[in-house]
TrEMBL record:
One of its GO terms (cellular component) is cytosol. It comes from the Bacteria. This is CMP/dCMP-type deaminase domain-containing protein. SUPFAM superfamilies: Cytidine deaminase-like. One of its GO terms (molecular function) is identical protein binding.
Length: 136
C-alpha cells in the first residue's frame, strides 16, 4: 500500500490526479497508474485502467491484486491517503482481464482482500471474445 500512496503523493494535483492504483501480477511485478481527469468528464480515465494498460503492455496476464488509494483535497478535513474500492466501471474492466483478481480493502490496521467477482456479482458478459481468453 505504501508504494501506491507514494505514487499519488508524488503526482497529486487537485482536480486532475486524486486516485492512484496498483496491480500486482503473479510474478511479483507491480503496475501503477494515476487518475487522469479531463475537462470533459466522460474523457477522464481511472487509475485502475492506466495501471491495467501498463500491465498488459508489459505482457502481464496473471493479475492477482488491485489496490486503489484516494488523496484528500486540501479543502477536506481528512488529511490521510485512504484505500478506496475500484468504481463500477473499473470493476467491469478489470474482470475482463483478471477473473480471479482480489481487491485490497480496509483501513491501515485491518487490510483484507475480497474477490472482485464478489464485488460485481452480475458482470456483463458480451460476445466480443471468449470469456476465458485473457492472454491477448
Amino acid at each position: 500500500m505504501e508504494h501506491t500512496r507514494g505514487v499519488i503523493r508524488g503526482r497529486y494535483a487537485e482536480n486532475r490526479h486524486q486516485i492512484a492504483a496498483s496491480l500486482l501480477a503473479a510474478d511479483g511485478r507491480v503496475f501503477s497508474g494515476i487518475h487522469l481527469e479531463a475537462m470533459v468528464g466522460r474523457a477522464s480515465v481511472c487509475a485502475e485502467a492506466v495501471a491495467l494498460g501498463k500491465a498488459r503492455e508489459a505482457g502481464a496476464t496473471d493479475l492477482r491484486y488491485v489496490l486503489s488509494v484516494r488523496h484528500p483535497k486540501p479543502s477536506e478535513a481528512a488529511r490521510e491517503i485512504k484505500l478506496v474500492p475500484p468504481c463500477g466501471l473499473c470493476r467491469e474492466l478489470l474482470l475482463d482481464y483478471g477473473q480471479d483478481l482480489q481487491v485490497v480493502l480496509g483501513g491501515e490496521d485491518e487490510l483484507r482482500s475480497e474477490s472482485l467477482s464478489q464485488m460485481l456479482p452480475h458482470k456483463y458478459v458480451g460476445t466480443k471474445w471468449a470469456a476465458v481468453d485473457q492472454s491477448r
